[in-house]
Design goal:
By secondary structure, the chain is of the alpha/beta class. It contains 14 helices and 13 strands. Helix 5 links the parallel strand 5 and strand 6. Helix 2 crosses helix 4, helix 6 crosses helix 8 and helix 8 packs parallel to helix 14. The protein is globular, with a radius of gyration of 21 Å.
Length: 365
């Protein structure tokens, strides 16, 4: 593979790993595209040139895509960014003569707890209780409408819970264990539709190179059927925690808190960003202390520390393993990394990143 692949959102979890694997494997000439110069810091160790472009700036994107045959759209962000970036990216790709656009959507378009039998042909709904799901649904629909002009080939990938080194499902859960806010609804017995990050990138490669993929959508996941407890247990054991101590019950209803409503507003984000860094750090530390207040001396989480979100409750009670048969049959997709190996790599990264992991995984530090 000698064509040039632009990776939009190269500073994010999936985007960054995509650049790493493409570059290290020599599979393609890769061009990371980031919004700010400092976002390129983690990739600056490679001999590659990055381009600066906001995902909503058609002119900047067109310049960044120049000479690229393929674009991987891996931009993360709030719900507004997810929707607003679709048209500028597509228009810029068309203007730059890009052949194919691979869009990283999410299996969440089917909900956190999809119905049995759900697959790529299942109807999507834009009125779900989780706004992230609705944003991805609207983004996919808009991209489908735009691509009817045939200017750029489009492939949509819907990975499940993408985890691995540097992911929020790995480092984020470790942080929650340490600060006392971790929980698993009903012990985490529900199905986790996991997708190890390197397996997702294998699907990205196939979506780029398989001609028949144009205009199609694929669910992507790991081979094994696992539970949420299976995903979280290696992290807990590495840090010396007992998963049975953090089981929680889902509330009967989920009225959005004032904090959730504020977080979803542009005004809240602008306010926080406008504060001096020491003030932002103080707010973060104060919230962490408040969370710790609900943890007793034995490490059992109590009272205000358990803030069960609707999203987590739905995820942890999922009863459906989403299929990736279509990707297997049409792309030749096969998850190359087993779940066991993925967990080993994730825990290894926790140790590398400085988390207080146990030497033998059984509580000895």
């Amino acid at each position: 593979m000698t064509n040039t692949v632009a990776v939009l959102g190269a500073n994010g979890f999936i985007g960054c790993r995509t650049v790493e694997l493409l570059y290290l494997s020599g599979w393609a000439n890769v061009r990371p595209i980031v919004r700010r110069p400092d976002a390129f810091a983690s990739l600056s160790r490679f001999a590659i040139d990055a381009m600066l472009a906001d995902a909503r700036d058609i002119q900047a994107l067109t310049a960044a895509f120049a000479g690229c045959q393929y674009v991987v759209h891996a931009v993360a962000g709030d719900t507004r960014t997810i929707v607003d970036a679709i048209e500028p990216v597509y228009r810029a790709a068309a203007a730059a003569g890009v052949l194919r656009l691979v869009y990283l959507s999410s299996a969440s378009v089917h909900g956190q707890s999809p119905a049995p039998g759900t697959d790529e042909m299942s109807a999507l709904h834009g009125d779900q209780p989780i706004e992230y799901n609705n944003a991805k649904v609207h983004a996919e629909r808009h991209l489908g409408q735009l691509s009817r002009d045939g200017a750029v080939q489009v492939v949509v990938l819907r990975p499940g819970i993408v985890f691995g080194p540097r992911s929020s499902w790995t480092g984020g859960f470790a942080d929650e264990l340490i600060n006392g806010s971790a929980y698993l609804v009903d012990g985490g017995r529900g199905i986790c539709n996991s997708a190890y990050v390197d397996n997702v990138i294998q699907a990205i490669k196939l979506a780029i190179e398989v001609p028949e993929a144009s205009g199609r959508t694929y669910l992507i996941g790991d081979r094994e059927e696992i539970s949420w407890a299976d995903l979280c247990r290696p992290i807990a054991e590495a840090l010396g925690f007992d998963l049975t101590a953090i089981s929680a019950s889902a509330p009967l209803s989920f009225a959005p808190s004032w904090k959730q409503r504020l977080k979803e507003s542009q005004g809240y984000r602008r306010l926080v960003r406008s504060l001096p860094r020491p003030v932002r750090s103080g707010l973060k530390a104060g919230f962490a202390e408040w969370q710790k207040a609900g943890q007793n001396a034995t490490g059992t989480i109590m009272g205000p520390a358990i803030l069960v979100s609707q999203e987590r409750a739905l995820l942890h009670q999922c009863r459906t393993k989403l299929p990736w048969r279509k990707a297997e049959h049409e792309l030749g997709y096969q998850p190359a990394v087993s779940f066991e190996e993925a967990c080993r790599r994730s825990v290894g990264w926790l140790t590398f990143a400085g988390y207080p992991t146990c030497r033998n995984g059984a509580g000895e530090r």
